[in-house]
Specification:
The complex is a heterodimer of chains A (169) and B (90). With 169 residues, chain A is α+β, with helices and mostly antiparallel strands. Chain A contains four helices and five strands, in the order ααααβββββ. Chain A has one domain. Chain B has 90 residues and is mainly alpha-helical. Chain B has one domain. Chain B is built from four helices and no strands. Classes of the chains: A alpha+beta (169), B mainly alpha (90). At the A-B interface, helix 1, helix 4, strand 1 and strand 5 of A face helix 3 and helix 4 of B.
Chain lengths: 169, 90
């Protein structure tokens, strides 16, 4: 490997440091970490151990029923930034991208988050269950807009989680 | 910027004699060729910062073009991405 390749690798690693690595072992302990951290924790890559809810840390928790218009802005109060899914989060900021989806009901009304990992694939952690990079059909998630999301049929949009600028609880 | 347009831009810059301009354009071209493809999309703008930098260096030269590119990079934040996003709901 030439010195130029080493420099390029170092630059790539430095830029990619902001994007979380898919490491399910850090979340799937079948104990406290797994059961007390949910999809919002996982998407934001923050283990609060409080089963975090969008808006709770900022005092803007929205009660059910869950909608894109309710959960999305609540997350923005926590510091997430709404972005076009085909756009980046900004060259200068240290951010990674997440996506919000809703199960509209009737019967089952809930929200769920996916996150974009360093590998370029997406992963998620449904509630207290293990983190995974597979969708409901067992396929790797290349795009949450087209993945099999089960009951979460409404795709709300993408958000940026920037290091040091997001507080969840 | 298509590959053809990018090549044309680089040729335009190489024809100029300013070695600093050529070095700056070369660094941007190296980024676009070797680094950018290994990253997920990070830019908040439709025209990426490196495309913009190449265009500005070609059209406005090293000092003014370089300053414009630097300002663009400074403004390329998540807040900008949110402002440009149609899905911003709060």
């Amino acid at each position: 490997m030439s010195w130029l390749d080493k420099i390029i690798d170092a630059i790539v690693s430095w830029i990619r440091r902001c994007i979380p690595v898919y490491n399910p072992a850090a979340w799937n302990d079948n104990d406290g970490i797994q059961f007390n951290n949910n999809c919002y924790n996982y998407a934001c890559d923050v283990q609060t151990g409080t089963y975090a809810q969008p808006g709770r840390a900022s005092g803007h928790l929205r009660p059910a029923p869950f909608t894109c218009q309710g959960v999305g802005p609540a997350a923005q109060w926590d510091g997430l930034r709404a972005v076009d899914c085909d756009r980046g989060c900004g060259c200068r900021d240290c951010c990674h991208k997440v996506a919000l989806v809703i199960a509209p009901g009737p019967g089952f009304n809930d929200f769920h988050w996916y996150r974009l990992d360093r590998s370029g694939g997406w992963s998620h952690k449904p509630g207290g269950t293990p983190a995974t990079n597979l969708d409901n059909s067992g396929n790797p998630i290349t795009d949450p807009r087209t993945a099999d999301r089960g009951a979460y049929t409404v795709f709300c949009g993408c958000y940026c989680v920037c290091k040091g600028k997001v507080t969840i609880n | 910027m298509t590959p053809g347009e990018e090549l044309e831009t680089l040729v335009t810059i190489v024809r100029r004699q300013n070695p600093f301009l050529r070095a700056a354009a070369g660094a941007v071209a190296l980024y676009r060729e070797r680094i950018s493809p290994r990253l997920p999309r990070t830019c908040a703008y439709d025209e990426t910062c490196s495309e913009y930098a190449l265009r500005q260096l070609t059209e406005r030269g090293l000092m003014r073009g370089g300053w414009a590119a630097f300002r663009r990079y400074r403004n390329c934040t998540a807040a900008t991405a949110e402002r440009l996003s149609p899905s911003s709901t709060r």
